[in-house]
Amino acid sequence: MYSVAICGATGAVGIEVIRCLKELKFPLDKLTLYASARSAGKEIEGYIVEEFHAEAAGKHDFVFLCVSGDFSREYAQQIVDGGAVVIDNSSAFRYEENVPLVVPEINADSIGDSKLIANPNCTTAILAVALYPIYKEFGLKKVIVSTYQATSGAGQPAMDELKEQTQVVLDGGEASCENFAYPIPFNLIPQIDAFQENGYTKEEMKVTWETRKIFGDSDLKLSCTAVRIPTFRAHSEAVTVETEKEVDIDRVRGLIDAAPGVVLVDDPTNQKYPMPLNATGKFDVEAGRFRKNEVFDEYGLDFFVCGDQLLKGAALNAVQIAKALV
Ligand SMILES: NC(=O)c1ccc[n+]([C@@H]2O[C@H](COP(=O)([O-])OP(=O)(O)OC[C@H]3O[C@@H](n4cnc5c(N)ncnc54)[C@H](OP(=O)(O)O)[C@@H]3O)[C@@H](O)[C@H]2O)c1
Question: Which of 32, 104, 126, 135 is most buried (CB neighbours < 10 A)?
């Protein structure tokens, strides 16, 4: 049995880590919830939130960091030095060579004896579980991804903004924005995170960099366009791939059906396909709309995935990493 702490337990990801620990029956001896001084004393699921102190955090067996990149950069090493295994939800260490970046269904063996493990970007984790079986069977020449990302990807305050500002618009007012570059109600914003020199946003490049690291293939060609949309929860992604080998769509469906972490939802005749409303709250990523690609013919396919980015894209994947270590 293990002593576990969640830093950022009042946030969108932190709250889901509590749920995942329970649902995955993690062998918990003691659970401690940390947040900032603002939330100290607050009760969540019967636990009283404590103000974070790095020294106390290091005394646990496992610590989930669910705060921010700056916070992780400041405290992760100190917590590891205290003796804990740290699973970091931020992007702070994802690209460091000696820090494993893990989707357990794909590369659990990369954890080794590392005490600091990075959890991937939400869009990447959701894509990776569906893309990996196709990559293994048919090889990938090129991957093109367009995303439709929920407001919860930007944390609890962003979800609150969607709710409040939608009501403002419905009441005849003009929406304002704090968590996004533009008002989010009844809008789409083709910018998530900062623009890079190559014209992509950081979010888009994360999908490329991280998929390469998780698949262990630094040559993988992947281009992403990331768009924020006015939904509360669960990210969707339209994926087009050019394959090395000729593709058999029925075989792809069979592979997805058998793959862990992803469920096949692909019955167009009965209008069954992945959607954020259905994927919300579910552990498995939904994949469907599998079809031969009209541009790449026999050597390509298109499909659509939806996954709860607070679960497979964050809390669930983090708890699965911890479970792989006990
Ligand atoms: N949202 C997603 O879909 C998603 C997916 C994958 C990864 N991530 C990453 O996960 C991390 C958390 O994201 P989130 O969406 O859960 O953010 P969030 O909803 O804004 O929550 C942030 C949490 O951090 C706490 N916090 C802030 N400053 C602190 C401090 N100085 N000391 C201790 N705790 C502090 C907050 O506590 P208070 O209540 O005290 O303010 C809150 O619990 C981020 O690095 C994010 O990039 C998010």
Answer: 126
User: For ligand 1, is residue 309 a contact (CB within 6 Å)?
Assistant: yes
- 177, 179, 182, 184: which is closest to 148 by C-alpha? 184
Given phi > 0 = left and psi -120 to 50 = alpha, else beta, which region is 281? left
Rounded CA-CA distance 179/100 in Å is 30
β-partners of residue 5 are 32, 63
- Residue 179 is encoded by which pair of tokens? 């968590």
First to last CA, the chain: 9
Q: Is 36 helix (H, G, I), strand (E, B) or coil?
A: coil
Q: For residue 311, what is the DSSP state?
A: I
Q: Where in the chain is the domain with CATH 3.30.360.10?
A: 124-309
The residue assigned the tokens 């991957």 is: 143
**Could you tell me the sign of the dihedral formed by the alpha carbons of 291, 294, 298, 301, in that order?**
negative
Mutate to test the pocket of ligand 1, among 48, 68, 90 (most ligand atoms within 8 A of CB): 68
The pLDDT of residue 132: 98
152 in contact with ligand 1, CB cutoff 6 A: yes
Ranges for all domains in the chain classified under CATH 3.40.50.720? 2-119+315-324
Which of 3.30.390.50, 3.90.1150.10, 3.40.50.150, 3.40.50.720 would CATH assign to domain 2-119+315-324?
3.40.50.720
Question: What gap in Å lies between CA 226 and CA 145, rounded to an integer?
Answer: 8
For domain 124-309, the CATH architecture is 2-Layer Sandwich (3.30)
Tens of pLDDT, residue by residue over 28-67, are 999 999 999 999 999 999 999 999 999 999 999 999 999 9
Q: How many CA atoms lie within 13 A of 276 on its CB side?
A: 19
The DSSP element (H or E) to which 129 belongs, if any, is helix 122-138
Residue 97's pLDDT band (cuts 50, 70, 90): very high
